[in-house]
Specification:
The chain has a single domain, classed as Beta-galactosidase, Chain A, domain 5. It is globular, with a radius of gyration of 19 Å. The chain is mostly beta strands. It has helices at residues 8-13, 15-25, 244-247, 325-329, and strands at 5-7, 40-43, 46-50, 54-59, 62-68, 87-90, 112-115, 119-121, 124-126, 136-149, 152-163, 170-182, 188-198, 204-206, 213-217, 235-238, 254-261, 264-272, 283-285, 291-294, 302-304, 308-320. Strands 1, 10, 11, 12, 13, 16, 17, 18 and 22 form a nine-stranded antiparallel sheet that branches.
Length: 330
């Protein structure tokens, strides 16, 4: 068994250890608790609004993030682009939208999303990232629970990664995505825990590839192909001080994407947990497009056996102005 791919039993056994470590590193995901079944769940200045289509976390009157429950497909796009189970928009504390969804020229990318690219399942290529290939789909299945604690609010959602290759629409990975937003308004901070379990009787091979795993798609105002909205290319910065020209396929502890938006500059950064597989994992920083991927398959592939779980954790910091380097380095 791979050291960071765990059976369900081992995942449960290790949760106490992980929680203790999170506390010491300020990366703790809040423990789960059942919240009231109201449309608005309150925790200090935080609240969660739930509709039939989305979950939206608010900090006071300012939205923080939006998670899509129902399949999304803009008018005019082919059916194979349909997707749910991703986060967009992501807002900065001043209300600037720092992500894009179904971006011009790259409609298979979605704000903050998870997907693998070059995988082999039953001797066939299955690509969960490039949905326009028609080989796979990724969809939200259900909300497991809403979590409300002092200074934290969030949710746990189940997402299914399905193969369309072997008879169509077969669940391969079932993902438990846990989001916890902290009650802070100078920057917005949220914790992410993703557990992807192989629910089949066959091994899923994640082949070496340029990208895959966690994807971040930046604002439409940074997309040169979006001639209506483009303001300028996004900037990138990593924990090693590297930028767009030098950061690609390096192994930083955190990566930030930011740039000019209407009303000023804003962006978001992703900090990888030090117990993540192959930490610090390589990042794919695109030379022209406003996106990056935190990807453990950039240098070598691995596999998820039947019943095993791939675990990844991140802290996301969304900010206005320049990158808060001192905060990210804490």
């Amino acid at each position: 068994m791979h050291p960071r791919k765990k059976s369900r039993e081992n995942v449960l056994y290790g949760m106490i250890h992980h929680c203790l470590l999170f506390c010491s590193l300020s990366l703790l995901l809040a423990s789960c608790g059942r919240a009231p079944q109201d449309d608005k769940e309150r925790g200090g200045s935080l609240r969660l609004e739930r509709t039939d289509d989305y979950l939206r976390i608010m900090n006071g009157d300012q939205a923080v993030l939006n998670y899509w429950l129902t399949p999304q497909l803009p008018s005019g796009l082919p059916e194979h682009y349909t997707r749910s189970g991703f986060i967009h928009p992501v807002w900065s504390p001043s209300g600037k939208v720092v992500t894009d969804n179904f971006p011009v020229g790259y409609a298979h990318q979605h704000g903050f999303f998870t997907a693998w690219t070059n995988t082999t399942f039953r001797d066939s290529l299955v690509d969960f990232w490039n949905t326009h290939k028609g080989l796979a789909t990724v969809m939200h299945k259900k909300v497991e629970e809403i979590v409300e604690q002092d200074g934290i609010i969030g949710f746990e959602a189940k997402i299914v990664h399905r193969s369309n290759v072997h008879g169509g629409n077969e669940p391969v990975l079932v993902e438990e995505l846990i989001i916890r937003v902290h009650d802070r308004n100078d920057v917005f901070v949220w914790d992410v825990r993703s557990e992807q379990t192989n629910v089949t009787k066959d091994t899923l091979f994640l082949n070496k590839h340029l990208y895959g795993g966690l994807g971040i798609r930046g604002s439409k105002y940074w997309n040169a192909k979006d001639t209506t909205n483009f303001m300028g290319l996004a900037d990138f910065l990593t924990s090693d001080g590297l930028t767009r020209d030098s950061a690609n396929h390096t192994r930083p502890e955190w990566t930030a994407i930011y740039g000019d938006l209407p009303g000023g500059k804003a962006g978001m950064a992703v900090v990888s947990h030090p117990e993540n597989f192959r930490w610090p994992a390589p990042v794919r920083v695109h030379p022209d497009l406003p996106y990056f991927s935190v990807s453990p398959v950039t240098e070598a592939g691995f596999f998820i056996e039947p019943g095993e779980t791939y675990l990844a954790r991140y802290k996301v910091v969304v900010f206005d102005g320049e990158v808060p380097i001192n905060l990210l380095d804490e």
